[in-house]
Amino acid sequence: MKPSRRDFIKTGSAAVVCGSVLMQSRELRAKTINLPLGLQLYSVRDLLPKDYQGTLKAVGSLGFREVESAGYFNHSASEVKQAMDNARLKLVSAHYPMDSLHKELDQIFAFNKEMGVGHIICSSPRLKDPSRYKTMKPADRDHAFTLEDWRWNAEQLNVLGEKATAAGLKFGYHNHFTEFYVTDGVVPYDELMRLTDPSKVTMEMDCGWVVVGGGNPVEFLRKYPNRITMLHVKDFKSKDASASPKSEPVVAELGRGSIDYRPIFEEAAKSGHLKHIFAEQEAFTVPPMESLKIDADYLRKLGLS
User: Fold this and answer.
1) At what angle do helices 98-114 and 77-86 cross, to 10 degrees?
2) Could you point out which of 43, 46, 153, 168 has its C-alpha 20 to 30 Å from the C-alpha of 255?
């Protein structure tokens, strides 16, 4: 799901959102959660095709210990495994969109099992009838999903989760921002939680997109303490008062935007079910590795190691 034209809704998320100046001036003291430092490799999607092994080694040198894939760039399973070993990285999960999971499920399972990957994550949903996109303006796609579409996606996640379990894998779902747009009086993320089987589908909550969609990650962690086992963490700058309501949020490095992850991690630590946290940097204000170092340093101050 390519993000476009979304409202960065600040109200309703006050518990986790604060001004960037305040974030930079306050020291992060409390170590709230002790998990390995993780990175979603979508962050280095432009570097991996040019130098796969070198990029992974650079990621490892920053202190990241776990990674999540978003494509293998035509490398074989043995090549990926060797590159991860050389970089001292553990590849724990892999992202695939719903379409790919429907078309290539057996190959996806076999390829990732060969590398020892334990989690397959659906990275984006699909319209029940994708032909609807043909008559839709790009600006309307953010609100294209109906409640029927979300319920259909829940059914598909259960089916895929059952097949993953049978294959000895864990299966999960990663949100973007449209899951938090109220649809027919319902928050789609709540509907996905209601209709998916906890024994088959875990949730990887992307906290940044929750905030962009108008939600509060703390509230969802409190509401579903046993369902959310993985987090994506990213940051955005607060929208300027003069900005258009449809303008896109501006990406920032962790701690340099508007999202305070301390209360989010504090709430996540209470459940005892959180297993992995991945930073994800979708754009950069400085060179990529410098940007990822800022993210890593921020997360270390919150207890990751």
Assistant:
1) 70
2) 46
- Report the distance separating Cα 11 and Cα 17, nearest Å: 9
Q: What is the bridge-based pairing of β-strands 66-69 and 228-233?
A: unpaired
**Sole residue written with tokens 């600040």:** 10
CB contact at 8 A, 182 and 215: no
Q: Which residue has the tokens 């979708």?
A: 282
State the Rg of the chain over Cα: 19
Domains of the chain, first to last: 20-301 (3.20.20.150)
Cα distances (angstroms) measured from residue 153 to each of 130, 150, 196:
12, 5, 9
3-state secondary structure 185-212: CECHHHHHHHHCCCCCCEEEEEHHHHHH
Contact 60, 300 (CB under 8 A): no
- What global pTM score does this model have? 0.89
Q: Tell me the C-alpha distance between 28 and 117, whole Å.
A: 33
CB 203 within 8 A of CB 173: yes
CA-to-CA distance for 177 and 3, rounded, in angstroms? 8
Among residues 119, 86, 63, which one has the least CA distance to residue 304?
A: 63
193 burial level (CB within 10 Å; 0-12, 13-18, 19+): buried
**Distance (Å, whole) CA 13 – CA 168:** 38
pLDDT digits (tens, 9 = 90+) for 70-87: 999 999 999 999 999 999
Residue tagged 């962050």 (tokens): 43
pLDDT digits (tens, 9 = 90+) for 146-197: 999 999 999 999 999 999 999 999 999 999 999 999 999 999 999 999 999 9
